[in-house]
């Protein structure tokens, strides 16, 4: 799933806190948002492996949640929703597309790395690829209760995420071509080899393109 979808889901996970314990709503929502975003900070450094931990985030969230209920401090609430957001993100990526440059071609057998078992989990493709129309639909559906319930900065973040989601979905299928033109037509000629070596393999440089 695309980053706006993950960010909105992270927020939505924390939404019940605004009813159950409104004094912790802001901290829970902020932590949920950051947790939803966190795994994708590995976009260019071992994507869906370096910061995606479907098993370990989930296990830690399961430990943190009851502690946060018993000892409801701001730190425990924040830790719980950070872990929960990151866990749900990492697990949900399994139900999206693979790691190939054009994930709609469905050629990759790698969705998310499972550090616990030491192997890649295969993409289920319930949402065929990040930025697919059904991904946008998911974002829109989740955004509705958030827009109704939130206000201030968080509401603005939700609205911005929806705008980004619409634009990303509109241009998603053009991005691989743009990336290839930029990388093979420009960066290959200008960047030193050691910098090119760190570009993700999905850009096809290992095939000498
Ligand atoms: Zn991800």
Description:
This is Metal-dependent hydrolase. The structure is a single chain. By secondary structure, the chain is an all-alpha fold. The protein has one domain. 58% of the residues lie in helices and 3% in strands. It has a two-stranded antiparallel ribbon. A hairpin with a 4-residue loop joins strand 1 and strand 2 (119-121). Helix 1 runs antiparallel to helix 3 (25-37) and helix 3 (25-37) runs parallel beside helix 5 (74-92). The longest helix is centred in the C-terminal third of the chain and has 20 residues, at 152-171. The radius of gyration is 18 Å and the shape is globular. The protein binds zinc ion. The site of zinc ion has 6 residues, from loops.
Features:
209 residues, binds zinc ion, 9 helices, two-stranded antiparallel sheet, mainly alpha, 58% helix
CA-based gyration radius: 18 Å
Unreliable sequence segments: none
Q: What are the bound molecules?
A: zinc ion
What is the β-strand count?
2
Strand content: under 5%
Q: Main sheet: which strands, in order across?
A: 1-2
- Whole-number average pLDDT? 93
Helix proportion range: 55-70%
State the shape.
globular
- Major pleated sheet: 2 strands, antiparallel
Helix count from the secondary structure assignment = 9
SS content category: mainly alpha
Alpha-carbon distance between the termini?
Answer: 27 Å
Compute the number of structural domains.
Answer: 1
Order of helical and strand elements = HHHHHEEHHHH
């Amino acid at each position: 799933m695309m980053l706006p979808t993950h960010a909105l889901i992270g927020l939505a996970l924390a939404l019940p806190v605004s009813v159950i314990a409104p004094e912790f709503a802001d901290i829970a929502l902020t932590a949920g948002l950051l947790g939803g975003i966190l795994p994708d900070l590995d976009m260019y450094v071992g994507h869906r492996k370096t910061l995606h931990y479907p098993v370990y985030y989930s296990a830690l969230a399961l430990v943190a949640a009851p502690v946060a209920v018993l000892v409801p401090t701001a730190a425990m609430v924040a830790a719980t929703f950070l872990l929960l957001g990151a866990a749900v993100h990492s697990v949900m990526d399994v139900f999206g597309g693979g790691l190939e440059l054009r994930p709609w071609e469905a050629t990759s057998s790698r969705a998310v790395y499972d550090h616990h078992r030491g192997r890649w989990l295969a993409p289920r493709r319930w949402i065929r690829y990040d930025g697919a129309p059904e991904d946008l639909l998911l974002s829109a559906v989740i955004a509705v209760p958030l827009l109704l319930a939130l206000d201030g900065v968080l509401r603005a973040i939700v609205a911005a995420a929806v705008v980004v989601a619409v634009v990303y979905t509109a241009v998603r299928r053009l991005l691989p071509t743009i990336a290839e033109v930029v990388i093979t037509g420009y960066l290959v000629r200008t960047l030193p080899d050691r910098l090119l070596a760190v570009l993700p393999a999905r850009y096809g440089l290992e095939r000498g393109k």
